[in-house]
Amino acid sequence: MSSAEQGPPRARGLSTWTTRRWLRVGVAVSLVLLAVLGTTGAWVLGRTGSLSEDLADVRSPALTTAFRLESAILNQETGIRGYGLTGTPEFLAPYRQGLVDQRRSGAELTGLLHDDPARLADLKSVQGALTRWQERIADPLAAAPAGSPLPLAADRAAEGKAAFDKVRVALRAQQDRLRADRDLARTDLMDTMSLRNWIFSAIAFLILILTVCVFEGLRRGINRPLERLGADARTIAGGDFEHPITPTGPADLRRLSGEIDFMRRRLVRELAYTEEARLRLDAQAADLQRSNAELEQFAYVASHDLQEPLRKVSSFTQLLQRRYGGQLDDRADQYIGFAVDGANRMQILINDLLDFSRVGRLHNAHEEVELDTVLEQVLAALSVGIEESGAKITHDPLPALAADPTQMGMLWQNLVANAVKFRRPGTAPEIHVTAAKDGELWRFTVTDNGIGIDPQYADKVFVIFQRLHTKDAYSGSGIGLAMCKKIVEFHGGTIRVDTTYTGGTRIDFTLAPRATENADPSVLPQATRAGEQLAELTP
After folding, report:
1. Coil, strand, or helix at residue 426?
2. Amino acid 528: pLDDT
3. Residue 533's pLDDT is what?
4. Any idea what DSSP says for residue 400?
5. What is the dihedral of CA 47, 49, 55, 58, to 10 degrees?
6. SS (H, E, C) 434-471
7. How many CB atoms are located within 10 Å of the residue 334 CB?
8. Which long-range contacts (C-beta less than 8 Å, at least 24 apart) are formed by 386-389?
9. Which of 482, 166, 426 is CA-nearest to residue 299?
10. How far is CA 221 from CA 23, 108, 181, 231, 248, in A?
11. What is the distance between the alpha carbons of residues 441 and 538, in angstroms, rounded to a whole number?
């Protein structure tokens, strides 16, 4: 990446921040801003409450009380002046009530203004002027006897007016200052309330900006990189493995994107290698299939074409044996016997090879087959050998499978015939067939009390033309178990010798309940071996 794309040094420094660090810084800044805003809001609320309390509990009540004090003083002046002019005692009642109201209002003002020295001084100025008026005018007149106008009132009228004017001036000055204080308190309260409104509007705006910044930061720093990473991952999962993953967002998300992209590149390499291996395997499988088909066709054609010359050889050797038997010397009779026996064994071998080559090629008609019925038919076909050997054959209930009926007959015939053939001398064969469900397959066993199979030959017996005994000891071509293996694998199962059984031989095999596609991996080695045998027999 070029320096222009990398940005200034500060951007490079921030590019190393992880999601956790961004979240921590964001939360810390948010908490600091909220703390500052909360403190400012609390101060404004406290200030508004203090001003409101001062206005409602001090300034307005103080002005009201000052008015009541003025009213009480005016009552005193009116009562004394009327008493002085008339001498009527009823005029003293307003004067005395005014004194009571004066003292009460003065005490209230003192309590309200105890924290305001200037206003207390105004109250003392009013009280001082009032005391001088009372001492010079009101108290002497109130003490004079009633009944007639008081000469003292006329004598001190000018002095009383001047003294009470001073009281009026002090009261007016006090009320003007209290009114000014109340108006100032109201103005401060309104200004503070306006400031409060502005501050709370600013708090709401800042919270909104902070919320927008948080959501935008999460969208740009986490959601968008994750969405892009998810989109890239879905593109790759859709099959575009060459699509690169572009790292974005905080450092840890970019590191995660890089690791995923590394995994993608590794998967691309593995897929390329796997695809190459698959293509090689497909080519080998095609070659193997073609080779199998060619070898099977060769085995069938060769064995079929050998039938006609072999029949001629067999017919003429038997004709020689019948016509010239006993007319030549013993060695000639022996040679003729060898020729007849070889031709018969060749006939058997070719017939077995033809049957082997037909498995899966000519006999491939899957249908519902009752294995009980097939086994009974096989036992009927082998009844002569079974009776001669005295064999006792039993079987469990056998299932019905989707299989080729001809191949199933060949399978049971080879297994039962082998069990009868390879019996212990002097012991009647006992053969038992079992069937049990094993997962999705059926498992069968054919158990006898014969001579058994050495464990070291457990795999060899399933190879075509492999014999464990000479032809003089036991007849046969060595194709029977190889054919059984081919039939079982063609029907989706496996076959083996149970080497743990020691009372004779136990053949264990499985069959699929439904028709399956079978690769028949045994065809190549078996057909190869068949081709080799036929190559040896043909000129």
Report:
1. coil
2. 42
3. 45
4. E
5. -100
6. EEEEECCEEEEEEEECCCCCCHHHCCHHHCCCCCCCCC
7. 11
8. 386/420, 389/420, 389/423, 389/428, 389/429
9. 482
10. 10, 66, 57, 16, 8
11. 42
Give the pairing type, strands 392-395 and 495-497.
unpaired
Coil, helix or strand for 367?
strand
Q: 365 pLDDT exceeds 80?
A: no
Mean of the per-residue pLDDT values of the chain: 79
Instruction: Report the run of H or E that residue 239 belongs to, with start and end.
Output: none
Contacts of 230 (CB under 8 A, 6+ apart): none
Cα–Cα distance for residue pair 329/334, rounded to 1 Å? 9
Total residue length of the chain: 539
Tokens encoding 47? 């200030």
Cα gap 218→225, rounded to integer Å: 10
Q: Is 505 left (phi over 0), alpha (psi -120 to 50) or beta?
A: beta
229 contact partners, CB below 8 Å, separation of at least 6: 245, 248, 253, 256, 257, 260
Residue 228 has a CB neighbour count (10 Å cut-off) of 17
Phi-psi category of residue 494: left, alpha or beta, with phi > 0 → left and psi -120 to 50 → alpha? beta
pLDDT of amino acid 447: 92
3-class SS of residue 409: helix
CA dihedral defined by 248, 249, 255, 258, rounded to 10 degrees?
Answer: -10
Q: Whole-model pTM? A: 0.44
pLDDT tens by residue, 260-272: 888 888 888 888 8
Alpha-carbon distance 271 to 236, whole Å? 13
pLDDT tops 50 at residue 522 = no
How many C-beta atoms lie closer than 10 Å to residue 4's C-beta? 6
State in Å, rounded, how far the first CA of the chain is from the last one: 77
How far is the C-alpha of 483 from the C-alpha of 353, rounded, in Å?
9
Give the list of residues 6+ apart from residue 200 with CB closer than 8 angstroms, or none.
41, 44
Name which of 382, 499, 526, 508 is nearest 445 in CA terms.
508
Question: Alpha-carbon distance 393 to 430, whole Å?
Answer: 6
Tokens for 77? 């002046």
Contact 125, 170 (CB under 8 A): yes
Q: 128-142, 201-215, 319-333, 489-503: which range is least confident on average?
A: 319-333
Query: What dihedral angle (degrees, nearest 10) is formed by the CA atoms of 87, 89, 91, 95?
Result: 110
DSSP string, 20-52: HHHHHHHHHHHHHHHHHHHHHHHHHHHHHHHHH
CB distance 496 to 509 below 8 Å: yes
